[in-house]
Structures are given as C-alpha cells and as structure tokens.
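Quick log. Single chain, no ligands specified.
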Amino acid sequence: MTPDLVLVIAEPGDTTADLVVEVLERRPVEIFRFDTGDFPQRLHLVASPGSEPSRGRLSLAGRSVDLSTVRSVYRRSPSFFAFPAGMSEPEIRFAEREAVQGLGGVLTGLRCRWVNHPWRVADAGFKPVQLQVAASVGLRVPRTLLTNVAAEAASFMDDVGQVVYKPLSVGVVAEADKVRVLSTTKLSAGDLDSTSIGLTVHQFQEWIPKAFDVRMTVVGERFFPVAIIAGSGAAQVDWRADYDALTYRVVDVPDQVRLASLALMRRLGLLHGAFDFSVTDDGSWWFLEINPNGAWAWIAEETGLPIADALADLLAAEFQS
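-> predicted structure:
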C-alpha cells in the first residue's frame, strides 16, 4: 500500500500552514495536523521502535493515525510542549527532555519526505554555516566578521567602510513585558561599545548599496523570486522594519544564482527555503541568508504566486526511501 498520510506540524492559526492545508485538501492524501504544544495533554503517542515494520500511532481529538502510512511531513513553527499545571520546574524539565527524546525521536525517525527535517533545519539555522556554504557554491557573500572583541570590530569597519550589525539568532529581546526587535542596523565608529561587544558574539557585515532586496522562496526546484522595494529609510536598511513602506514585483533569477541556490539547498539537505538577497544597480545578487522555515504567506498574497500549490505538490508526491 502506498503511504498517503501527510502530517502537518504547526501551531494553530499559522497562516502559512493554513494555506498549505487548504491546497492539500484538494489532493488525494489524508491530512493529520497537530501542534507539539498539544503534547502530552491532548496528543497521545504509542510506538514500538525496533519492530519490523516499525509500528506507531498518534491520537488527537478522537482521531488516530498509523505512522507507517506517513508519506510526508510539513513542519512549520510548532509551539513547545504544554505540561499540566502543578508540575514542578524540575519535573517539567525532565518531562521536556523525555518528550523530545520520545515523541521527537519517533517522528524524526520516520522514513518519509520532510519539508524540512528538524535536524536539517537545526543545522541550516547557523548563519556562519550558511555563509560558508553559500560562498563555496559560488554565491556572492558580503564580507563578514563575527567577534566579541571591540578592537577587531573597529578594524573591520576601517577596512570595509560602511558596515551593519545583524543578529545571528531571532532578534527579539523580551524583558519586563516589553519586546524589543533588533533589526539590521547601520553603524558608525561611535556606535561601537567595547563593553557590550564583549558580552557575546556580534555579527558585523559589509553594507551592500542595493537597488532592492529579493525574497526568493524555493520549493523543490521551483523558484518564486520577488523583489521587495523599500519606500522608507528604515525599510531600505531592513525591509522587516517597515512593512507598510514595501511594494513587490516578481523578478527573474539569473541562471548562476539559480544553480548555486539549488547547490546550497542540496548541501544543507533542504527541500524548501526562503532566501534573502540584496541586488545592486549593476544586477549583482548578494546572498544574505536562507530561512529553512521561512514564512511566505504575505508574499503569495501580494503577488499571487502559487507557493502553497508547490508545497502541496511536493508533500503529496510519492516518496521512495
């Protein structure tokens, strides 16, 4: 029997996952959607690893599915496990570790198509890895310095000229009910503070004087490149800083960039990724990063690009292990 079950792992209300499910419902597959935040109070696991064939099932809201019938998994941005009230902090930490090993181990061991596999997402999430691989496959990469030494940052700025600071992880700091978002920021020499730089690793990067940015969503070997044109100074530095000032248009991808991007995805083991490029007046494409779990719903809405259809096609296609 050909496996026909597609697992969708995403938190409720995830618009990107909603669009994929909507299209999948028109495909000849069965869909089982859950959030890891449903475990252990609503989502239940029974599995026998080591048996042949491996047996297991998931149950949620009165429905149970056989994990041996999984054809593919679409994993977006699920929430973390939610344990019952009354458990102590040590008990919760132990239960979390066991859930990661148990539920996580069963799911990541499924022999099926993952978009994308959590191990691959974790590896690809390291920005230094992305930059190194991008350069090795022939993509243009801005000169970059990672350091916690202020003197090195100052020397880099002297050599390169205009530089920007970019957080390496999720650029959000939450404290005392206040949330601060760290965007890409242009720096001058007076902005370098030796004390704060010494507290952790900082990423400094050559500023690329760009005509526009490109968000390029790749699904399998299908490309959906969209120019993002900034209408404000803040958006010119980091388009995420001012969504209201953005306009969009579909663009063509140079052949060399297309081939190098596919090579990067193969090296990182990804079937889906959201690339960010800066494009200069002379048509040069500069690689900034790839998000292996990037959102694209707003891009599809702005442009009409069939990204959800492409993902549904990939998930519904037969998988040969």
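Residues 122-126+209-292 form a domain with the D-amino Acid Aminotransferase; Chain A, domain 1 fold (CATH 3.30.470.20).
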